[in-house]
Amino acid sequence: MFKFISEDEDTKARCGHLVLRHGTLETPAFLPVATKASVKMTTSRELEEMNAQGVIANAFVLFLRPGVDTIETAGGIHRFMNWDRVVFTDSGGFQMLNPDFLVKVTDDHVTFKSPYDGKKHDITPEICAEIQNRLGSDVALALDDCPPYGSDIEHMTASTKRTIQWARCFRKATEDESQNSFGIVQGGTFKDLREQCTRELVDMDFNGYAIGGLCIGEPKELMHEVIGWSTPLLPTEKPRYLMGVGSPEDMLKAISMGVDIFDSVFPTRNARHNTVYTHTGKINLGKGKFRCESGPIDESCRCYTCANHSLSYVNHLLREYEYLGMRLATLHNLHFLITLMEEARTAIMEGEFNDLKNDFLRDYLGSK
Amino acid sequence: MFKFISEDEDTKARCGHLVLRHGTLETPAFLPVATKASVKMTTSRELEEMNAQGVIANAFVLFLRPGVDTIETAGGIHRFMNWDRVVFTDSGGFQMLNPDFLVKVTDDHVTFKSPYDGKKHDITPEICAEIQNRLGSDVALALDDCPPYGSDIEHMTASTKRTIQWARCFRKATEDESQNSFGIVQGGTFKDLREQCTRELVDMDFNGYAIGGLCIGEPKELMHEVIGWSTPLLPTEKPRYLMGVGSPEDMLKAISMGVDIFDSVFPTRNARHNTVYTHTGKINLGKGKFRCESGPIDESCRCYTCANHSLSYVNHLLREYEYLGMRLATLHNLHFLITLMEEARTAIMEGEFNDLKNDFLRDYLGSK
Lengths: 368, 368
Description:
Two copies of one chain form a homodimer.
Chain A: E1 2-7, E2 14-20, E3 23-27, E4 29-32, H1 44-49, E5 54-58, H2 59-64, H3 68-74, H4 77-81, E6 86-90, E7 102-105, E8 110-113, E9 120-123, H5 125-135, E10 139-141, H6 153-173, E11 180-185, H7 191-203, E12 208-211, H8 220-230, E13 240-242, H9 248-256, E14 261-264, H10 266-272, E15 275-278, E16 281-284, H11 304-308, H12 311-319, H13 323-349, H14 353-366
Parallel strand pairs in A: 4-14, 5-6, 6-10, 10-11, 11-12, 12-13, 13-14
Antiparallel strand pairs in A: 1-2, 2-3, 7-8, 8-9, 15-16
Helix pairs in contact in A: 5-6, 6-7, 9-14, 10-13, 12-13, 13-14
């Protein structure tokens, strides 16, 4: 159930409470990615301490390893991970972009191969729903057909038709409401297809709507345009989830367009490559100029890393390829995005979201 | 200052308090290894939570990167690492075993090359003392000449003579007592040389004595024999530190011979290769048989990993090469050894060390 709490006057930014089996997601919210039931380098205690409200795991990847049986034996994905807050599970549609996984797509299923043993698996929307139901996540994402950016209009038309058809089957298989069920809007960068897909999915009365197939290589301006094709057609009283988007600037812009939920591997992946967020922009922590910097990564940050360690120390660890350096950078980046969402919620409720957004973007992008 | 607290009646096991600038090391004690000012994968908070009393860093490695200046600017090794408990620093003598470092040894210094840039550095005992003094560790280890296992009697005789000569120079350079200074007994597996080296070092009145050059390839029985050549010659009122030894069975045996302090990369390195300690022996956590095991790694363990995660989950993470799996295994292994030392201290004080040792070894080795 999504409780609409507040709307910003100047923008379309919204605050809400998405009430789920394992707790409430206060939106706007950022979900750290736990593809294999683990947020890279990070314990569930650390996620709790940074006020992460939920994570997103990948149902198809977990179906391959360790297998649904193993997770069901543990009592579901939450107990398996020792995480008692919200878990979303992605369907596996996104893996179609990965040639290590994709074999072929037909009108009624996708055939994946396991990158572990080469074994083929036909995944229908119904099987996809069953996997997620057995994993016991709070929110199941519909099986979608996600073609690469740049696919032509014929390909995208057929693909969008499949996404709609699969969503219908998936919705039927998840109607018992034991778990929230979200549809995923596709349609590439074609306005007609995006609008058609959005309308059809809305008719299916999902518990929420994801916008998929973005942040996969298209220009940023186009991405924001595409988001704007869907949001006006989505029902106000349902949550909107922009999948795979997680840079601070993109999230703030999308929030101002009415998006509620985000996920991205950026904060964890960037951290492992020395890049961290600060209020004055991204920095490469491995640079020599930080060698003797006694201050924290970001003066205003209250994460474990900034509270306990100097730039100089993290710089040393990263330059020496010490795992602890990647851990400390990961903690900082996740905390930074989660805190930014907290600040966005407060600002929306106080009618000051536009100021927050403009001030943040001025400092964050201005330094480049 | 070493306060002698208690001695076991049946064995030579001892309890003591080594009072240092940054706190007291209650012995027997195990020091996790922080070669580059970081215990692999582990934060200082986690080390505190598992009751680690101290760590050992490597002075020569830190001299190369990030450099003594950087650490001095931070206010010393403790502030650099954000670790306010005990820090030992090893001298670099051990790096002579590594052809990436060693260029040559002369009677008055060792020439190392930096594996980073190939630059050569002549390290005398005095320079070695100065580096450790500037790093600000609680205990500085003398520069020793550590030849490979199997070196012949001529080589070892010359090398031991150098170790003694360097120890004398090092002791002179560290006489101000601002920092504890430990000599390192060498002499390979030659009884005469070990005894001679021990006696000469004892004459120099170090604050403590390390036994070096062991656990470098010699058979286990020989290692215990070599320890027994030194311990009777070492003064009762000074701490004894067996360097590089860290398997549970070796530590318990060495404690019964009167050793007080240990360090080893085994617990962290083993963890990264899926091997963890349990009271019924070492296990390979990556094995398929643990796939659905809902219990912890060790039922009696109170570490973060065992308190929060199942064997099944850690097994999954390790099989998937998720960093979190290595982290959780590392936490468990370090906690296991530190707790074993706590149990040894209690048992010694209660006059039950021999029972603890025999019971532990029966369960631990019996399962193999």
